[in-house]
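Sanity check. The docking grid for manganese (II) ion depends on where the pocket ends up, so I'm generating a full predicted complex first rather than guessing from homology. Inputs follow.
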Amino acid sequence: MAMLFPKKTLPPTKHTVLKNWVSEMAVLCSPDKIVWIDGSEEEKKRLEDEAVAIGEIIRLNQEKLPGCFYHRTAVNDVARTEHLTYICTKKKEDAGPTNNWMSPKDGYKKAGTYFRGSMKGRTMYVVAFSMGPVGSSFSKIGVELTDSIYVVLNMRIMTRIGQKVLDCLGAEGEFTKCLHSKAELDINKRLILHFPEDNAIWSVGSGYGGNVLLGKKCLSLRIASHMAKREGWLAEHMLIMGIEEPNGHVEYIAAAFPSACGKTNLAMLIPPEGLKVKGYKIWTVGDDIAWMRIDTDGALWAINPEAGFFGVAPGTNSRTNPNAMATIRKDTIFTNVLLKKDFTVWWEDGDEPPPEEGIDWQGRPWKPGLKDEAGRPVKGAHPNSRFTAPAFQCPSISFRLEHHHGVPISAIVFGGRRAHVAPLVYESFSWQHGVYVGATMASERTAAQVGKVGEIRRDPMAMLPFCGYNMGEYFAHWLNIGRKLEKKPRIFHANWFRTDEKGEFLWPGYGENLRVLEWILDRCNDKPNAVKTPIGYVPTQEGLDLTGLHISKEELKKLLEVDRFDWIQEMESQREFLSIFGEDLPEEIWKEWEEQNKRLQE
Ligand code: O2Y
Ligand code: MN
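Predicted complex below; grid placement will be based on this.
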């Protein structure tokens, strides 16, 4: 069904499949207008002015926060909605036991009813974007159709967009078809659907973050993990950072932690005083996603497909993350934080004391000490409020972010938030053992999360919400990659959150985590500063450089302890979890589980 484009907005591409698809989606959504995004500065200015005029964003104090804007989402639309997120494959088993599944036919039909006519009175923006540097053979192109200027402005920061991407796509290039409409912002008519077999994403009824910036979790993890399985690479929920050693050599690590474990802080770490004298420097390549492949040298190389940070505001301050604070001083979009009278922003656990008054994330007047009807404190900023900021503004950004080839990975770190059981750090015995460690990693629920405090949530490789196919097959894919790698990164597990009997953290975290990374790099260089335990190699008492830290011998012992009693219980919990995958779980993972269980019983 061809639709005529108004002359002014002639599609700036010769890609017939793309043009036909845009026409077809326009017929479905009935926008008043179609605008092809070129990515220019003039266009940015125009979109900002228009979004301000219609109240979609608020211009912040341009003297104090140049180029910054404020956005509030609907009250029921403040986080990813995992229960409305589906993998739509022909066969249910291809989505696996950990994903919501819908058939493609049902998915298109159900979401189609929500999309029909949803853009009446609105503009459909056509945003061509590249995940990864434009033109790199490791990058992937997507085109997002959206009726939200907020989405366009965020995509502009988080990805590379516009004419240069359309040019790179040419007349026949492959792209992911991403359709988004806020529609009625009705949670009962919200769906985030992934069609890996069609290379398509449909998101409707939301205007927030991970649900609508379709290049991020939807394309770069769910769709990309499916592509990666087919094409022989890895799409992972990992930060990438470079550690410049005292001799000037930079080693890169990739690390996977579940959401809310401080990934952004770790990626932008500043060396603590005690280690700074040694001459370490940290280079941030990415804070959330890593695409990794085996290169011709037989090593694992990674790119960060994103170009910006979509970080949580509350808790971000000059102590926890000075680099993030420097990054968001200009050209940043703030979402759901508190708006101050002088049109600057505030959030809980930031740098400043609460303002005397402000407008909270729900648009209501707020002042410190405010309580709701039930007597509970009312927060000024939503706990999941965000900043969207360009990566190049980060003082620790690595020039390799724009490097087409990426960076070689020396170590992979899996981590979780465990008050007990998991030591501060340990090294797996082999790639296969490391995959088992990643497959069984877990976090305990904190008071800040919904559910029972302390409850264990297994989150393999931090990919549970993001793996676009059967996770049993995903583990098999990891094992296969290991078989092909000639220079395998070593695999570690870290836990910054171990507590003492009083519930106090034993490890100071933040910049001090570099001491653990230093040990990890020592291990990659075969330093014998480790002792063998049933679960892997743990630092010797002298293995970590603790210069300038006040940690007693007892505390260090507790931090590094592998308690057999706790671990035997842990193994039972792991067995229960692994059983979910039935026949799809590779036998190598069971073998690693059994051998570790045996070592613990000995
Ligand atoms: O709540 C959202 O929509 C965003 S979630 C998110 C954002 C940036 C990086 N990681 C995450 C995550 O949940 O892992
Ligand atoms: Mn994430």
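Relevant for the grid: Residues 248 and 280 are 8 Å apart (CA to CA).
Also worth noting: The domain at 7-55+81-231 is CATH 3.40.449.10 (Phosphoenolpyruvate Carboxykinase; domain 1).
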